[in-house]
Every structure is written in structure tokens, then in C-alpha cells.
Design brief:
Shape: globular
Largest sheet: 7 strands, mixed
Low-confidence stretches: none
CATH topology of the largest domain: Aspartate Aminotransferase, domain 2
Number of domains: 2
Number of helices: 15
Strand order of the largest sheet: 3-9-8-7-6-4-5
Distance between the termini: 79 Å
CATH superfamily of the largest domain: Type I PLP-dependent aspartate aminotransferase-like (Major domain)
Mean pLDDT: 96
Radius of gyration: 23 Å
Number of strands: 13
CATH architecture of the largest domain: 3-Layer(aba) Sandwich
Structural class: alpha/beta
CATH class of the largest domain: Alpha Beta
Strand content: 15-25%
């Protein structure tokens, strides 16, 4: 006797709506769904959200250049002289003389043989790492490096290894256990974006040299913040003349505009122009962006008061938060985390601060480790003493209400 098994229902492919709905449901269930706050005024130390003026501690606008009159005026000049857009990718017809002028200016600022500007810091890491690294090479990366480095390394065919955060003994161990005849690259952030700590770059470069390695520094949060005239972490450690250190960074933080750069030997620029896919397949920066960036780099060199105010404000704000009893996680830079522990606690603290006129964003897992959820504050040169006192008063009230401080 033949037994007929019940037929299984035929399932069709997942629909677009089904995929979108299920993925959003997962984010909501995990408490990770994001709805960005919308600014209703320019990016400044005080801005407007939901119709209310707030003290802004959420921006990367370290020097206050995003809405600075000198920067805006230069952007307008370039817009009227050169038009609204570059019109093509740089390697076809999109390289204007102002693009090369900016890159010459940036190389001189960084004390490197050349510089190349790309569309963003994220695509710069993808482009440089994807271009330099080949099969048989070794890349050793700090475990807390930025997501753009992690994604850039995923595209590379090199052997990838990770060393414990700022642990020099572990860096030496990884290098010693993975000998290669290929290129060796040690990759680190200059300033780590979540904790605000500085890489021990002098030690990293010293160990890298023992193994014939090149050091690759993503200085997104160091440029305009550290070193003489804001030249960055490499200058902060006196390594600006080192031929075995590559400088990568953004033009969207201290410089207040948008873009990324790679600064190093002249041959690096030439190779990236020919091989870096984000450069080869993206339109060049609009003239107004080029003008604004040129003005920003000039301004920080002409007027030391920007960096002086940035660091005076940073020291005051950190000291007062610590005096109130908050844990700022040993931050060394204007990036000042305030630890709340669990993600929902940090998110609730952020909501309460906003109700008191302070805009500071809560961050939880997977952006930061579980149990170390925080609000990340960035003090800028543009903040006044009154701005910071308003923020500190709000922090004290919220911290006591939530039991974070006594």
C-alpha cells in the first residue's frame, strides 16, 4: 500500500514589503530603531529642535566652522565663479583647478608629499585600504577602529588580524605570530570616536617599524583638534616627517564641511587616482564645498583662538562633569562620554536632557559595548560659558533623577 504524504505548501519568494517590515520589527524589538532628530536652524553651538532652542552637544563641529561667515563667504565665491557642480568624475572631466589647489593646500598643511580628496571619510578608508592591500599582505587593526576601517578591510584580500585596544604587547604578539613577505599595515584611529581617547601613536609606530610595517592613521577626530594649528594626531606625536606613516581623515568634522582625504607620498596620490574605486566612480566635490574647505584650513592657521577656546571649554566641561560624579571614561579629547550603563537608561537620559534644552545623543549596543551605553558629548570652540553651565545644570538634574549620581 502506498502512503501519500501531505504536500507542503508552496512558498513564494520574500516580498519587498515583507523584508522591510520584518527587519524594522527586529530593530524595534531590540530597542535599536533610530529616528534622527531634525535641526531647524544651522549647525551651531545652539540650534533649534522641535521649535525650541537647545544647547548642541551632539555635533562634530569642533571649531564652529559649519556656519562661520568666512567659510560661507568663500563657499559663495566659489559657487558663483565655478558653478554648482563638478559635472563628472574626477578622472574624466570633473577635476577643476580648485580641486588640485585644495589638495596642494592640504598636503602643505599636513606636511606630506601629496594629498587626495575623496567624497567622504568612509569612502576614503574603503578606497585606500582596497587599493593598497593585496593577497599575501597583513593588516593589523585596533579592535575599536571606526566602522569605515572595518568595512574597508572586508573588501581587501589581505590577511586581517585584530589587536586589543591600545595594547602594545598584543600588537607585538600579533605581528610576531603572523610573518609575511607582503606589505604589513598597522591601522589605528588617531582619536577613538566613542571613548575620546588618543592612540599611543609613538609606541605604535615604533613597534610597527620593528616588523617593517607601515602605520595607517585615521585622524577623523584628530585633525583640527590635536597638534600644532590642528594638524592632527601625527603632528601631536612629532611624526609628521615619518615616511612610513599614512594620514587618512575626514573633512566633515573640525573643518565643518564634507569629504575625506589621504595624505602621504606623491606616489600614493597617483596610485589612488588610478585604482581607488570610490574616486574613480564618484563625481568630484561641488565648488562651494571646495571653497569652504579651503577657507576652513586657512582660518585655523590664521587664528589660534579657535583651538584655544575648544580646549578651554573641553577642560572646564570634563572637570565639572567629574566633579558632579559622572563617569567620563577617561576621555582625553573634546569627545566626552557620560556612561549610563544600559542602552535604555542612556536613551531616557537623552530624552530628559532634550526636555531641559540640551541636545546630546544616547548610544548603545552595537555602537558601543553592552553595559557601556552612554551619551556622547562634543564641546566646541563656539560654546560659551553660559552654554556649558546650562548643560551641566541639566546633567546634574537628570543624573540625580535617574540615580546615576548622588
Amino acid at each position: 500500500m502506498t502512503t501519500t504524504l501531505p504536500s507542503r505548501p508552496v512558498r513564494g519568494p520574500v516580498t519587498l514589503q515583507g523584508r522591510l517590515t520584518s527587519e524594522l520589527a527586529k530593530l524595534h524589538a531590540a530597542g535599536l530603531h533610530i529616528s534622527p532628530r531634525v535641526l531647524e536652524a544651522p549647525q551651531r553651538a545652539r540650534t533649534r529642535i522641535l521649535g525650541h532652542e537647545v544647547v548642541n552637544l551632539a555635533s562634530n563641529n569642533y571649531l564652529g566652522f559649519a556656519d562661520h561667515p568666512f567659510v560661507k563667504e568663500r563657499a559663495a565665491q566659489y559657487l558663483h565663479a565655478w558653478g554648482a557642480g563638478a559635472g563628472a568624475v574626477r578622472t574624466i572631466a570633473g577635476t577643476l583647478s580648485i580641486h588640485e589647489d585644495l589638495e596642494t593646500q592640504l598636503a602643505a598643511f599636513k606636511h606630506t608629499g601629496s594629498a587626495l580628496v575623496l567624497q567622504s571619510g568612509f569612502t576614503t578608508n574603503q578606497g585606500v585600504l582596497g587599493t593598497l592591500l593585496q593577497e599575501g599582505d597583513l593588516v593589523v587593526s585596533d579592535e575599536l577602529n571606526h566602522a569605515s576601517i572595518i568595512d574597508g578591510l572586508r573588501l581587501a584580500k589581505a590577511t586581517k588580524k585584530v589587536f586589543r585596544h591600545k595594547d602594545m604587547a598584543d600588537l607585538r604578539r600579533v605581528l610576531s605570530e603572523n610573518p609575511t613577505e607582503g606589505l604589513i599595515l598597522v591601522v589605528t584611529d588617531g582619536v577613538f570616536s566613542m571613548d575620546g581617547d588618543i592612540a599611543p601613536l609613538g609606541e605604535i609606530v615604533g613597534i610597527a617599524r620593528e616588523y617593517g610595517a607601515v602605520t595607517y592613521v585615521d585622524d577623523a577626530h584628530g585633525s583640527g583638534v590635536l597638534g600644532e594649528q590642528g594638524r592632527g594626531t601625527v603632528h601631536h606625536f612629532g611624526l609628521q616627517d615619518a615616511g612610513d606613516v599614512l594620514q587618512i581623515g575626514t573633512l566633515s568634522k573640525a573643518w565643518g564641511v564634507v569629504g575625506g582625504y589621504a595624505a602621504g607620498p606623491t606616489e600614493l596620490r597617483d596610485l589612488l587616482i588610478n585604482r581607488a574605486r570610490p574616486f574613480l566612480f564618484s563625481t568630484g566635490h561641488p565648488p562651494a564645498v571646495v571653497g569652504a574647505l579651503s577657507a576652513a584650513i586657512e582660518l585655523v592657521q590664521q587664528d589660534p583662538s579657535f583651538m584655544e577656546r575648544l580646549w578651554a571649554n573641553t577642560r572646564f566641561f570634563k572637570a565639572e562633569l567629574n566633579r558632579l560624579g559622572f563617569d567620563t571614561f577617561g576621555s582625553e579629547t573634546p569627545i566626552t562620554p557620560v556612561i549610563f550603563g544600559e542602552a535604555e537608561t542612556a536613551f531616557e537620559a537623552s530624552r530628559r536632557l532634550l526636555s531641559l534644552g540640551v541636545f546630546a545623543v544616547g548610544l548603545g549596543f552595537p555602537t558601543v559595548p553592552k553595559g557601556l551605553a552612554r551619551i556622547r558629548n562634543i564641546v566646541t570652540a563656539e560654546h560659551t560659558q553660559e552654554d556649558l553651565e546650562i548643560a551641566l545644570s541639566a546633567y546634574q538634574m537628570v543624573g540625580r533623577e535617574m540615580g546615576t549620581i548622588a
